Amino acid sequence: MAPRKPHLFQRLTNPQELEHAWLDVLAHYTKDRVPQELRDFDRKRGAELRRLAAALRERTFLPEPASLIFLPKSGHAGEHRPIALIRPDDRIVLTALNRLLAPLFERQFLPNSFAYRPAKGAWAAIERVTKCLSQGLIHSASGDIDDFFTNIDRSHLFCDIRRTIFEEPILELVETYLHIGATCELDWVDSGRGVAQGSPLSPLLSNLALAGFDRFLVQSAVE
User: Would the pTM count as exceeding 0.85?
Assistant: First the structure.
């Protein structure tokens, strides 16, 4: 059997792929609200993306810890949510990784999983509930995983990733971002668990972490 070709890594190190990721980063802002750091990067976009592509290709790119801030949780007085502020280089790489990996994992997710997925989201979930009500279903249950993002088991998550991704350069980058921690008031912090809220890759990773639980719920309902 011929060895599998590392096509994901080749795409990741392509400046055009990185530019697509950069445009996705900018799309999160209106033109008058783009942070100055991103404006500075965009003025030298071509040269910066070629530099980043070369560093990735030569395996000299070094991810950096994000800066951690805490924002109040909506509807939870006195509670705060940790948010990672990420430099432009890492935001581009994480966004590019998400663009490359999402199609591979999307096919593994159940159709009744709605969070953080293309063409899904809250409105699609509401439509699903409405349809269930029209079919005569009247019972529902709700629950919440406390501090879900910060309590994901990284070891189990990475094992799930390895079942689908085989390219070592990609795996090394993902593993580095999983364990890189963050800086908070000049100190490096890392609990050993969780994924960074604010990372472009974290929504996909969170769905992957819950995929087994989703399948368990469906199987339990069938039984």
Answer: yes
